[in-house]
Write a structure and sequence with these properties.
Distance between the termini: 45 Å
Oligomer: single chain
Number of helices: 15
Structural class: alpha/beta
Radius of gyration: 21 Å
Shape: globular
Largest sheet: 9 strands, mixed
Helix content: 40-55%
C-alpha cells in the first residue's frame, strides 16, 4: 500500500521539498470537480506506474484547486487486458492509459523501431532521447495516423530487457545458438532471437513460469524486476546484462479529453505527467537493486558482457535492423540514431564541463 510517507519521500526526491508538498494537499477540493480524468493500467499498486499516477493525481488536483479530479484504476479494474484498455482510450471512455513499445506498435506498426536491439546504450542516453524531439515526432505521427491518442510522457516500466536462462550462461551470441527463448508475439522480438541463433517461442505471460520449469523454453528476455516479481528465479539461474532493449512506458491521453481542457488546465496536466515520468523512471532503478540481490540469493549468476562481447551482440543483431528497414523504411531509424548521437554528445559535453 502507498502511504503518505512513501509519497512524500518519492515526491521530495524530485525537488518538490516538504514545503512544496504541503502546498499540494490531498484534502477534499474546495469546489466540485469540473473534469474527471481516469487512469487505467494492468499493473498492481506495487508498480512504479501506480506511484507515478499518485504523483500526477496529487499535483493536478491541487494545482487546479479541485477543478480536475483524477481517478486511478490499477490491476485491470477498469479494463482487463491491453486490447480493452487501448480501445477504451481511443474511443474516449478512458482518458489516460500506458503502453509498452509493443503496445504502441499495435496501433502504429512503424513504432517497432523503439525495440531495435541495442539502439540505446544506457539509462542516461535513453532518458535524454525520451525528453527530446523524438517524442514530439512520435506524438505527431500517432496523432496523424491514429488520431485519438496524444503522447504525454515516456517513463520506464522495468529497466532493460536482458537474456536470462535456466542452465547455460550466455556471454556471446554463440551461446544463444539453439536455445529456446520465450518471446512476446511481436515480430521484432522474434526476429532478434532468430538473428542470435536461438529458437523464438512466443508464450503468454501467465504461462512463462510453468514453461521455464518444464523445459518448454530454456530462457526468456525480461527485466529483472519482472523476473523476480513472477518468481522466475525458481528456474532461471543465469542473466546476461546485454541490455538489448529499454523497457519504455508510453503515457497516452485521449486527444478529445486533452483538447476539451482550458489552456491553463492543459498546462497543469502536462506538468503533472512530467512529475509522473520522473517518479516512474527512478523507481525501477531502485527496485532493480533489491531484485538483483534476490536473484543472487536464489542461486543465480549475473554476467555483464565485456565491450567486445557487447559488440558481438550488436553485430549479430544487424539482421533485425535490416528486417525493420525492409518493412518500414529508414525514416525512424535515422531519427532515432540522430537522437542518440545528439544525446551522447550533449552528455559528454556536460561531463567535460563538470570535470574541469
Amino acid at each position: 500500500m502507498i502511504t503518505w510517507k512513501k509519497l512524500a519521500a518519492t515526491t521530495a526526491a524530485f525537488g518538490f521539498g516538504a514545503a512544496a508538498l504541503s502546498g499540494m494537499t490531498v484534502t477534499t477540493p474546495a469546489v466540485a470537480a469540473d473534469t474527471t480524468l481516469k487512469i487505467a493500467f494492468l499493473g498492481s499498486p506495487d508498480d512504479e506506474d501506480y506511484d507515478g499516477s499518485l504523483v500526477l493525481k496529487n499535483y493536478v488536483e491541487s494545482a487546479s484547486n479541485g477543478a480536475i479530479e483524477v481517478e486511478i484504476f490499477p490491476s485491470g479494474r477498469f479494463c482487463s487486458n491491453a486490447d480493452e484498455c487501448s480501445e477504451a482510450l481511443l474511443d474516449g471512455r478512458l482518458e489516460i492509459y500506458i503502453t509498452t513499445n509493443g503496445g504502441l506498435a499495435g496501433w502504429y506498426p512503424p513504432a517497432q523501431f523503439l525495440d531495435l536491439p541495442y539502439l540505446l546504450p544506457n539509462d542516461r542516453v535513453a532518458e535524454c532521447v525520451f525528453d527530446g524531439p523524438l517524442v514530439s515526432k512520435i506524438r505527431n505521427a500517432v496523432l496523424e495516423d491514429v488520431g485519438a491518442a496524444r503522447l504525454m510522457a515516456v517513463s520506464n516500466t522495468g529497466g532493460w530487457r536482458n537474456i536470462a536462462t535456466t542452465s547455460k550462461q550466455v556471454k556471446t551470441p554463440d551461446d544463444v545458438d539453439g536455445l529456446k527463448l520465450r518471446t512476446i508475439g511481436a515480430d521484432i522480438q522474434i526476429e532478434l532471437v532468430k538473428s542470435l541463433g536461438g529458437n523464438p517461442t512466443p508464450i503468454a505471460w501467465p504461462e512463462v513460469y510453468t514453461s521455464l520449469g518444464t523445459g518448454v523454453v530454456e530462457g526468456t528476455k525480461n527485466g529483472i524486476t519482472d523476473i523476480v516479481n513472477m518468481k522466475f528465479q525458481d528456474h532461471l539461474k543465469f542473466i546476461s546484462l546485454d541490455g538489448h532493449a529499454y523497457m519504455a512506458a508510453l503515457w497516452w491521453m485521449n486527444e478529445d479529453a486533452f483538447k476539451d481542457l482550458s489552456a491553463e488546465h492543459q498546462r497543469i496536466v502536462y506538468d503533472g505527467f512530467q512529475f509522473l515520468k520522473q517518479t516512474a523512471r527512478v523507481l525501477p532503478m531502485r527496485k532493480g537493486v533489491d531484485a538483483f540481490e534476490t536473484f543472487k540469493e536464489a542461486g543465480g549468476t549475473i554476467y555483464s558482457p565485456t565491450a567486445e562481447e557487447k559488440a558481438s551482440f550488436q553485430k549479430a543483431a544487424q539482421p533485425v535492423w535490416e528486417w525493420y528497414e525492409k518493412n518500414f523504411g529508414d525514416e525512424w531509424i535515422k531519427a532515432a540514431q540522430t537522437a542518440v548521437n545528439d544525446c551522447e554528445a550533449k552528455l559528454t559535453a556536460e561531463f567535460e564541463e563538470a570535470a574541469k
